[in-house]
Design a protein that fits this description.
About 40% of the residues lie in helices and about 20% in strands. It contains five helices and five strands; from the N terminus they run αβββββαααα. The protein has a five-stranded antiparallel sheet. A hairpin with an 8-residue loop joins β1 and β2.
Length: about 160
């Protein structure tokens, strides 16, 4: 018995600590129909989609819809998705018409656009699409701001 206890991860002389049951410590971003997600890899990278159906432990069917986010209904691995906190109330395998109506009713895409995560992605996209002259104007503005800050700190 002592031989078995030595190799056991929970030894007889230690006490098991019960997990905290506070709602804040609980994981809430589950893979479920209606969960809004960000595609992190592939041809639709950076676009938003919603999980429509679960095919297996590792694959799901997602839909944009095409008119809203530019993502067609297709199957993809869960590991290529970043799940968000938002969920649309739809049934498993919902039709596109039902899905669009639920998206518009809850204003899920507006709620997503108001989050810090979405704003950060939009800023990153804007920086990537800047022209050379726009980058130059940003550099000049940063230099000007830095000199103003130095002047303000020097006065104190």
């Amino acid at each position: 018995l002592k031989q078995r206890l030595r190799h056991c991860p929970l030894r007889a002389d230690t006490q098991r600590i019960a997990p905290t049951s506070s709602p804040a410590a609980m994981y809430t971003r589950f893979v479920e129909p209606g969960r809004l997600a960000l595609i992190t890899y592939g041809p639709c990278e950076g676009k938003m989609c919603t999980i429509i159906d679960i095919v297996s432990q590792k694959r799901v069917v997602v839909d944009g819809p095409m008119s809203v986010t530019g993502v067609n209904r297709h199957m993809m691995p869960v590991r290529r998705l970043s799940l968000t906190d938002f969920r649309v109330k739809i049934g498993r395998g919902a039709r596109e018409k039902t899905f669009k109506a639920a998206l518009e009713k809850d204003e899920t895409m507006k709620k997503w656009a108001a989050t810090a995560w979405a704003k950060k992605l939009a800023a990153k996209k804007a920086r990537a699409n800047m022209t050379d002259f726009e980058r130059f104007k940003v550099m000049v503005a940063k230099k000007k701001r830095a000199t103003e800050v130095k002047k303000a700190l020097k006065k104190k």
